[in-house]
Structures are given as C-alpha cells and as structure tokens.
Amino acid sequence: MNTLNNTGILKKQYANADHLNTRISIHDKYSTNKTGFGNWIVSHYNIKPGMKVLELGCGTGAMWKGRDEIIHNCARLILSDFSEGMIAAAKAALSKYNHIEYMVIDIQDIPFKADSFDVVIANMMLYHVPDLQKGLSEVRRVLKASGTFYCATYGEHGIVEYISDLLSPYGITDYTNKNFTLQNGRTLLSNVFHQIEQLEYKDSLRVTDIDDIVEYIYSLSSMTALNTLPRVEVRKILAQNMEDGVLNIPKEYGMFTAC
After folding, report:
1. Residue 32 burial class via C-beta count within 10 angstroms: exposed 0-12, middle 13-18, buried 19 and up
2. Is 116 helix (H, G, I), strand (E, B) or coil?
3. What is the pLDDT of residue 172?
4. Would you place residue 62 in the very low, low, confident or very high pLDDT band (cuts 50, 70, 90)?
5. 3-state helix, strand, coil in the chain (%, to 5)
6. CATH code for 3-154+179-202+252-258?
7. pLDDT in tens, 218-250
8. What is the mean pLDDT of residues 104-126?
9. What sections of 31-83 are H helices per DSSP?
10. Domain spans of the chain?
11. Which of 13, 184, 238, 247 could lock onto 207 through a cystine, CB 3.0 to 4.6 A?
12. Dist CA 228 CA 105 (whole Å)
C-alpha cells in the first residue's frame, strides 16, 4: 500500500472515535488480564512534579481519565493527534482538566524547540508514520537529554493473525501494518536512542458474544478484503471455533521505554 493511499485510509479510520471505540470495547469486555492495557502502560510512566509532557497520537484521551495525580504533576501537558476529530473527542473526555493543552501535530514535524520535554509518549501509532525514522528523530530532538520516550505497540502474532488464519480459506490475508511491532521496534528505536527496554503485557480474549468480535473485525483497516465476505459467513466461521461457548483469541501487546 503506497503512502498516499495509506494516509487516506488512516484519515477515514480516525476521522472520529467510532472505529477506535469499537476496538477498545472488545478489550474492555473480554480481556483475561483485568489490569487493563492502558492501566499497565501508565503504571510504567515516571512523571515527576514539574515535568513537561507531550503525547503524540492521544486518540480519544481515554488513557488520561482519572489520572489526576499524574496530570497535576505535569508543569505542562500537551495531548496531540494528527486527527482533529480525535482532538475533539479528547477535549470532551477530559473537560474537567483546564490546564491540559490540545494540538493537531504530525510526529514528523513537531512544532517545538529542541530539549522541550521531559517525557514524550506515542502509544499504538508509530506503525502509521510514513517516515518513521524522521518521526523518531523529531521525538529525540524535542526530548531533553535526561528525558524518556514511551511507546506501546502490538506484536505480529496476536488477534489479526489468528482471525486471518481462520478466514484464510476465503482469501482473507493478514495485512496488519508491521512497520513498528514488538518484533522490530527495538531495532528501529536503536537508530535514535541508546538505552531501550522492552516490556510485554500478558493477555488474551475470551469472547462469548460472536457479534462483538464481528464488529471488531469490520472496524479494522488491515482487513478491508472482508468487504467481499458477508458478515453472516464470518460469524459462522467464528462460531465453529468456539469451545464451550467461548472463542479464545491470543493477544500480543507491549511497550518500549527509550532514553
């Protein structure tokens, strides 16, 4: 998929929060690890009083809900996304915090001076960046020498691989974006950062309502080939793979911290 087409699909996917909320709801409802991926990610943040923090790709801002202590620790907290629709959703979700700043920002051209932030965050979005090395270089530029970069991502052997295998007889292929995964993320980060730690989040899905996972599948931009396959057929295939009323689906998620 070329960059132009990819950008167009992304803008459509993230014009508003609908598709993202569909995917988040599946994890909230059926994950076996009840910690919650967002809670787990935030538990690794080291944000001390007086720090300046920039998040790139904040999405709906849901991960900041209820994080009063961390938010108040920030001397400056900027939540940004390349989608105006996501920024609007984040503002609405976090309206009680009057000192959070919101901006539309492209990671490839961050509009701040060098050494501006103690912490930069980019969760579940680096694989979308057209020129990833340029984006990572921009993160390094605006990050203080003593600062930390946090970035969560998925692995290559999780939900989409599992579902694609089930649907492969119908010509469905795993088109998941693998530009930044748990498998190659350390190597990509090492081109810019010297000290990198990789952390893995142990989890899976136990789905009891097939209709929920069908909605999830059709929200994925990486499975656009499903447009030729009726939902009733997808539902039938998934139901056939249930055991005792449960569809067990592997997940592979984690994060990197880079200094």
Report:
1. exposed
2. coil
3. 83
4. very high
5. 45, 25, 35
6. 3.40.50.150
7. 887 666 567 678 889 999 999 999 999 999 999
8. 98
9. 37-43, 68-73
10. 3-154+179-202+252-258
11. 247
12. 35
Percent of the chain having pLDDT more than 90? 78
Residues 6+ apart with CB under 8 A from 138: 107, 108, 109, 110
Per-position b or e across 175-191, b if 16+ CB within 10 A of its CB:
ebbebbbbeebeebbee
CA distances from 124 to 7, 78, 127, 219 (A): 16, 17, 7, 16
74-81 and 196-201 as β-strands: parallel, antiparallel, unpaired?
unpaired
Rounded to whole angstroms, the Cα distance separating 115 from 25 reads 37
In degrees, to the nearest 5, what angle opens at C-alpha 162 toward C-alphas 160 and 163? 65
Q: Tell the residue number behind the tokens 């136990």, with chain if given.
A: 206
Q: 96 vs 15, 71, 91, 119, 188, CA distance in Å?
A: 24, 11, 9, 23, 37
pLDDT band at 2 (very low <50, low <70, confident <90, very high): very low
